[in-house]
TrEMBL record:
GO CC terms of this entry: mitochondrial large ribosomal subunit
Keywords in alphabetical order: Mitochondrion, Ribonucleoprotein, Ribosomal protein
Source species of the chain: Tieghemiomyces parasiticus
Compartments, record wording: Mitochondrion
Protein name from the UniProt record: Large ribosomal subunit protein mL53
Family to which this protein belongs: Belongs to the mitochondrion-specific ribosomal protein mL53 family.
Pfam families: MRP_L53
PANTHER family referenced in this protein's UniProt entry, alphabetically: 54S RIBOSOMAL PROTEIN L44, MITOCHONDRIAL, LARGE RIBOSOMAL SUBUNIT PROTEIN ML53
GO molecular function, one term: structural constituent of ribosome
Length: 121
């Protein structure tokens, strides 16, 4: 799940009533298998004590370098399909989402990037 991720920043008040989704998200992504899939992924957890802290998650996906095609190859109709990993950044207000929605959004996008990489060869 973390193969295409550069950074994840999770912010929540550990004593806040709306922090449960952020905590469960961390629990689900910080597994040995996920960390082994991308040891360079940085996971930062910020836990301010301010009661008005809005729990949030920011995910920065890595950007792949563009492909260089041999001149003999015909041009592709969609050049973006050659570059999986667009450096996209997701930001979530976790007080309004359950953990399944958070993990699902991340998984859906990483699967798309994996398919693009597989098609790339």
């Amino acid at each position: 799940m973390l193969k295409f991720v550069n950074n994840i920043r999770v912010t929540f008040n550990p004593y806040g009533t709306t922090a449960s989704s952020a905590k469960v998200f961390l629990n689900r992504i910080m597994t040995n298998d996920n960390i082994a899939s991308n040891p360079k992924c940085k996971i930062a957890v910020e836990t301010p004590d301010a009661p008005d802290t809005i729990p949030s998650i920011q995910i920065d996906f890595r950007k792949h370098p563009p492909l260089t095609l041999p001149p003999s190859m015909p041009p592709f109709p969609d050049p973006w399909s050659l570059n999986p990993g667009d450096g996209k950044q997701f930001a979530f207000n976790t007080s309004k989402m359950n953990p399944n929605e958070l993990v699902g959004a991340m998984t859906k996008y990483t699967k798309k990037l994996q398919e693009e990489e597989d098609n790339r060869g």
